[in-house]
Design brief:
Helix content of chain B: 25-40%
Strand content of chain A: under 5%
Distance between the termini of chain A: 25 Å
Distance between the termini of chain B: 80 Å
Oligomer: heterodimer
Radius of gyration of chain B: 33 Å
Largest sheet of chain B: 9 strands, mixed
CATH topology of chain A: Fumarate Reductase Cytochrome B subunit
Number of domains of chain A: 1
CATH architecture of chain A: Up-down Bundle
Order of helices and strands of chain A: EHHHHHHHE
Structural class of chain B: alpha+beta
Largest sheet of chain A: 2 strands, antiparallel
CATH class of chain A: Mainly Alpha
Strand content of chain B: 5-15%
Shape of chain B: globular
Strand order of the largest sheet of chain A: 1-2
């Protein structure tokens, strides 16, 4: 085992700020959606939601830049390899202390399931949320420009995306406990360092 | 130091530039010197020097400051201590105050010989007015204040349906029903004299009532049952009692004094009729009553007597006696013009004329203005300080006291006394300071006119656009006639969500001919005795009324539910009293009945929400079980100490 910097400084900053923004967006978003939630009054909830939305967009812009300039985007190339093994590991192997079917390396720090889920977030859920969110902010301008889109349809898609993110959040928070130790993944995302195995015996999906 | 700052402080709360109002509250000098004082002295000397320089450059610099308009008085106070420089300005201002400002008018009517007469009647005064204002009556006679016919509706409807529309013709309501056969009572609010019946001469210029709009003494009152005449000294030197038996004496009008003191219409002038529409204060309008005569900012921020002090005509711009505003089928404004200084137009009635279409600092609020009228948020409640009538059930009329006499029962609405029953009129429900109802409205109205066939079968619950209000006894299982039908829905780009008062009630109709009936209510003319308020016999009253207006009556009458919509546009308080987001963006909020728009907080797709949260719950439960099994099976990932131990073993 060797302590390596797995998550670089920007990556950790991006991750945690994104986490904070998503939680704030969820709190204020559902505050707007459900009158029964009264953490903030409607106007304040809307104000915070819009502020966080713009902050999120700026952050995502930086993150995209970072992914391309560092080549880290390759981490998210999906693979079918070992997906079955991963599922089997979570359903059976994990209870028998079986070894993780995919080795975590610097060049491939995401397992095949993570790759699929995170890629899904990056190319589907977040773009949908950002697009529908912007369309809601500029709804009047859209209508004025002749794009007759139903506010209800936009809001419903935005809600579906929000609920999907909530499912992700629930799963994500649990799955971070499935590292070497229950806290090792969390520690890695805070400090950046994680102990990775050195031997090359375990299979490793191809990285480009 | 302390005393010095204390002395200066009051000045901070006052506008630094004197206005035409009292400025005795401004501190001007101090006898006890202090460090602060010397500082100000030095500052003052500098300012004086600067001021002198300025005076050399711009000779009228400080004059311009002193002739500041009164309307600018409530401007933001700036922190500016009293210095010799601005004290000088102040003194100049006070000097200016000693000479009264010139009046807006170039004519002092009290100096006109023709008005120095002991007028015996209103028409005599009018004749005198017309000697100078030769076109005034001609102008007025073209307005609906005179014809009681909507001038535009006349053009639009005459060709299509062969009729003119207005209070004067074809219009029926669910208050005192209709003008026909009841003139002397109704026309006490006509801008004329003597409209007692259909023989009134609409071409006689001396019958125009100038004084009702132009009296500034507030002593000119048209007697409620005299067809537009006030009480004359020649007929009733000691005044006349009304209502009969009330002991309330209406003194004779001092026509000479009133004529000598004419001026531009004030809120009081418009209010003498419009605050009392329907025969009493607040009966018709839910947004116009005596509280608008001298309102505070919580009633109306624009008319606020201590603030902007707008007159009605500030918005209801008037040219050639043509006052802008709604009349029946025609919207108050179809074209909105932007108010430019010195620009005269009849189309400045819209809020947007002054505030523009993006009046808020907040973008999201501005995004509302295409679908939500200004009134929706800025008229939070109707009838804020005086009650308005919501329900009028004529079918209950006629019940007399145990002594066999007509009676009036009084009730209480939030501390205000109202009549809840009147033998002559039936049963009433009044409200005060209540949430209005909201509808889609494009400004256009359709009407059920006198003689239109009505539907007396379909229950109210199945009539589109009909709701039961919170303050009426409407029976949704019984039929209803919509006397006026506001146009527009969510698909109409011209329609906006608008607050309204909906006045509901029951009134007489011809059961066989299926038309709303016009009864003779007020005892006047030859058929005095047939009037309902004398005979208490609906049949006789309807025969007399329908005969008078030339409508056939089958002889069989019944009562039918009706409703009439009154859009709210007045009583806009300060912005802090505006409706907050969550009052509409919530379940069962103010706009619960508004269809055709998605409103966050009010609308959501329950299936999506259930499925979504169901999946979140499933994930959490799954994670819990997974974690539990991991713990039970002693999985190395599940416990730190165990894994550390294993690592140590390796």
């Amino acid at each position: 085992m060797k302590k390596v910097m797995v998550y670089k400084r920007f990556e950790r900053f991006w991750h945690w700020l994104q986490a904070l923004l998503i939680i704030l967006l969820a709190l204020t978003g559902f505050d707007i959606h459900y009158p029964q939630i009264t953490i903030f009054d409607f106007a304040t909830a809307h104000l915070i939601h819009k502020f966080c939305a713009w902050a999120f967009i700026v952050l995502v812009a930086f993150a995209i830049f970072w992914h391309f300039t560092t080549g880290e985007w390759r981490q998210y190339i999906p693979t079918k390899q070992y997906v079955g093994d991963m599922v089997q590991f979570y359903l059976v192997g994990i209870f028998k202390n079986a070894p993780h079917p995919v080795k975590k390396t610097l060049l491939s720090k995401l397992n095949p399931l993570q790759r699929l889920v995170y890629l899904g977030l990056k190319i589907l859920i977040i773009p949908v949320m950002v697009t529908t969110g912007l369309m809601l902010i500029f709804y009047n301008e859209l209508i004025a420009a002749g794009y007759g889109i139903s506010l209800g349809v936009l809001a419903t898609i935005h809600t579906i995306g929000a609920l999907t993110l909530m499912v992700f959040l629930a799963g994500h928070i649990y799955l971070i406990t499935t590292g070497h130790t229950p806290a090792s993944n969390l520690k890695a995302m805070i400090t950046g360092y994680e102990e990775l195995e050195e031997d090359d015996e375990l299979p490793n999906p191809k990285t480009v | 130091m302390r005393s010095g700052s204390k002395r200066v402080r009051p000045n901070h709360d006052d506008p630094p530039v004197p206005t035409s109002s009292n400025h005795s509250g401004l501190p001007r000098s101090s006898k006890t010197p202090s460090p602060m004082r010397t500082y100000f002295k030095r500052l003052g000397l500098m300012a004086l020097a600067m001021g002198l320089l300025l005076l050399l450059a711009v000779p009228n610099a400080n004059l311009a400051q002193t002739t500041d308009d009164k309307s600018q008085a409530p401007s933001k106070p700036t922190i500016e201590p009293v210095t010799p420089a601005n004290a000088q300005v102040m003194e100049a201002g006070m000097l200016a105050d000693d000479n009264p400002p010139p009046t807006a008018s170039t004519a002092d009517h009290s100096k006109f010989p023709i008005l120095q007469q002991d007028f015996q009647s209103g028409p005599e005064v009018t004749a005198a007015c017309l000697t100078c204002h030769t076109n005034a009556a001609k102008q007025l006679m073209k307005t609906s204040h005179w014809t009681w016919i909507c001038p535009r509706a006349r053009q639009e409807l005459e060709d299509k349906q062969g009729r003119e529309v207005g209070k004067g013709e074809h219009i029926i309501n669910n208050f005192c029903i209709a003008l026909g056969a009841n003139e002397p009572r109704c026309t006490s609010c006509h801008a004329g004299y003597g409209w007692e019946d259909k023989n009134f001469d609409f071409t006689n210029e001396t019958l125009v009532d100038c004084l009702v709009c132009h009296d500034t003494t507030k002593s000119y009152k048209k007697f409620p049952v005299s067809a537009g005449h006030p009480v004359y000294a020649k007929d009733f030197p000691k005044g006349r009692e009304w209502p009969k038996g009330s002991g309330k004496i209406w003194p004779p009008a001092d026509l000479k004094n009133i004529a000598l003191n004419v001026g531009k219409p004030s809120r009081h002038n418009c209010g003498t009729c419009h605050f009392f529409g329907g025969g009493g204060e607040g009966v018709k309008h839910g947004d116009m009553d005596v509280s608008l005569a001298m309102p505070h900012e919580g009633v109306d921020v624009h008319m606020n007597a201590a603030g902007l002090d707008f007159k009605c005509t500030q918005c209801h711009t008037t040219m050639a006696h043509q006052v802008s505003g709604r009349c029946f089928t025609i919207p108050a404004l179809e074209e909105k013009e932007f108010a430019l200084m010195g620009h005269e137009s009849n189309k400045l009635l819209a809020c947007e004329s002054c505030h523009g279409e993006l009046p808020h600092e907040n973008k999201k609020l501005n995004d509302h203005t295409d679908r939500v009228s200004c009134q929706t948020c800025h008229i939070p409640t109707m009838a804020r300080e005086r009650p308005t009538k919501m329900w009028w059930d004529w079918s209950k009329a006629g019940e007399k006291s145990p002594q066999g006499k007509p009676m009036v029962k009084k009730g209480d609405v939030k501390g205000a006394t109202v009549s809840t029953y009147d033998t002559k009129k039936g049963e009433f429900i009044w409200v005060m300071n209540e949430t209005p109802e909201y509808i889609w409205f494009n400004g256009k109205m359709k009407h059920t006119f006198i003689g239109d066939v009505i539907d007396d079968q379909t229950p109210a619950s199945q009539v589109p656009g009909v709701m039961k209000g919170r303050f009426d006894n409407l029976d949704m299982s019984k039929p209803i006639v919509r006397i006026n039908i506001p146009g527009g829905d969510a698909t109409d780009p011209e329609a906006r969500i608008t607050p309204v008062k909906i006045h509901r009630g029951k009134q007489v109709y011809d059961k066989k001919r299926k038309i709303l009936a016009v009864p003779k209510l007020f005892p006047s003319g030859e058929k005095k005795g047939e009037a309902y308020w004398k005979s208490y016999d609906w049949d006789r009253a309807i025969v007399a009324g329908m005969d008078y207006i030339g409508q056939e009556y089958s002889g069989e009458y019944d009562f039918i539910q009706t409703e009439m919509v009154w859009p709210l546009a007045h009583m806009v308080p300060t912005a802090k009293d505006a409706v907050s987001c969550a009052e509409c963006h919530t379940d069962n909020g103010r706009l619960a009945s508004i269809q055709g728009v998605y409103m966050p907080g009010r609308d959501r797709n329950p299936i999506i929400d259930y499925v979504g949260w169901g999946l979140v719950l499933l994930t959490l439960v799954g994670a819990m079980f997974h974690g539990l099994i991991r713990m039970v099976t002693g999985n190395k990932h599940a416990s730190q100490s165990q894994s550390e131990k294993q690592e140590a073993d390796q």
